[in-house]
Design goal:
Distance between the termini of chain B: 90 Å
CATH superfamily of the largest domain in chain A: Medium-chain alcohol dehydrogenases, catalytic domain
Number of strands of chain B: 0
Helix content of chain A: 25-40%
CATH class of the largest domain in chain A: Alpha Beta
Number of strands of chain A: 17
Order of helices and strands of chain B: HHHHHHHH
Shape of chain A: globular
Oligomer: heterodimer
Largest sheet of chain B: none
Largest interface: A-B, 114 and 107 residues
Strand content of chain A: 15-25%
Radius of gyration of chain A: 20 Å
CATH architecture of the largest domain in chain A: Alpha-Beta Complex
Structural class of chain A: alpha/beta
Shape of chain B: extended
Number of helices of chain B: 8
Strand content of chain B: under 5%
Helix content of chain B: 40-55%
Structural class of chain B: mainly alpha
Distance between the termini of chain A: 15 Å
Order of helices and strands of chain A: EEEHEEEEEEHHEHEHEHEHHEHEHEHE
Chain lengths: ~375, ~200
Amino acid sequence: MRAMVYRGPYKIRVEEKDVPQIEHPNDAIVKVSLAAICGSDLHLYHGMMPDTRVGMTFGHEFVGVVHAVGPSVRNLKPGDRVMVPFNIFCGSCYFCARGLYANCHNVNPNATAVGGIYGYSHTSGGYDGGQAEYVRVPFADVGPALIPDWMSEEDAVLLTDALATGYFGAQLGDIVEGDVVVVFGAGPVGLYAAKSAWLMGAGRVIVIDHLEYRLAKAREFAHAETYNFTDYDDIVVHVKKITGHLGADVAIDAVGAEADGNLLQHITGAKLKLQGGSPIALNWAIDGVRKGGTISVMGAYGPIFSAVKFGDAMNKGLTLRMNQCPVKRQWPRLFEHIRNGYLKPSDIITHRIPLEHIAEAYHIFSAKLDGCIKPLIVPDAG
Amino acid sequence: MTNLPTYTAQKPPNAESSEQLRARIPGWGADLDPNDRPSVPKQRLDPGATGAHWEFPERQPEKWPRERSIEHAFLTPVFGTSCPPKGLSGAIRKFSYRRYSEGRAAHWLLLIAADRVDAWEAHAASLLTTRPDNPITETGLRAEISHNGLGSRFGQKRADTIHQVLDPVIVGAPWILACGLAWRAVRSLRRRGRSARA
């Protein structure tokens, strides 16, 4: 089969690999029909995530058709059209039994601090991902779900991570009616978080980024008030000014490890890998939210230390909430919102690129070329 | 300025009321009740909800000694089988997993070091194949021409263009270093050859 393969920082190519095999009785093999590149894939691509091995296939956002199933699989059969959450989870451990599907204890031997994620380094379990023609899907009776007949594959693939994560991020903000919500980052997760904040009754939604085309999308797609932080000497002071010097009630970090806005933080975090990532968006969130406010962290960071301003967070009495999204837990409610017309996930897709050109796709997304917000990968582009 | 609500018990008012927002934004307030939010409460014991029909999963066969965190009691019943550790990078990885917990910086720093060694090993090995690494095609640089590289960057008030110049250095430095070392090695061999003949 054809598959994306990591060759080292900033380098990937498409190679011929063996079609994955059933390795556990509850495995399925899925033929991928559509995949996406996630912003967090860029952390792997840039060599930031420990134990990212040459030869691995990335991709934790994908949908497809069941090709084969293991002997204990009851809920799926070959030919089923499925969407697969980015979490790999057993459904039976202490954490899964309590709904924390992203924190499963039975799928990642390499680390206890993170669950299993498709194509996301050995730190997340060493599973190959879905930017390929076929992918192994463990616990087929637990993770995947049939794509409803009324749902397009493009909407479905965005439900496997980006939309669910943005929606989850708004929930972790514990928004109450009339809250002022500031979202740092106007990428896919930030856009969905901003849109979801309204569903939870926000009174004002502010989005901050440095890419004008993404801020334009935030105004149009998420009805948000937007600010480009490069227009201000100090974006935290600006947030204070526009909130009556109170600060936002809720701040959502939808940027993560490669945040811009402070060159020293970016270079030490994203380029030199001396931190688990550049925490500038998180620090802006800590300083920009009001005392007693809540911060929701959806941005992904590496497992080593980062220069986060915990002193300010403590002194301000903040509530910091965060987790990888338990995707499947979000789906029933998100399906309702999509059917009701409140959410149209595919509105943020900007590029559809054949698998054979995935090196260009990563570069376009990484360098933010051509107005790129969300690129999809089409394994069989004809 | 003394009448700023922030310095009193009041909260600064929003520009639009809830009724105005409900009329303007589709779905506004649909999840106003926390009970309608799927991740509230955070932990909800419901083992029957997942589709699992086992108390503990069957064990996946271990085809090679699988490295694992020493914070785990045993190898998890299911695990990924991509890219078994090999070469010097594999030895560093196995040592890191065997010796240090996830709580130790040394664990992660060794794994990052192994990643760099892995890339160098792979680049060197690729030179002995019919498909050596190609830093031009593998970095997707063609997109700079096909997808408006210049226009996407300049005049856009972007904060990242200042450090994007470092990206070619990150990609190119190992190649330049390797060429330099190879050149020194060749020169040294030639000198030794000349000395031996003299």
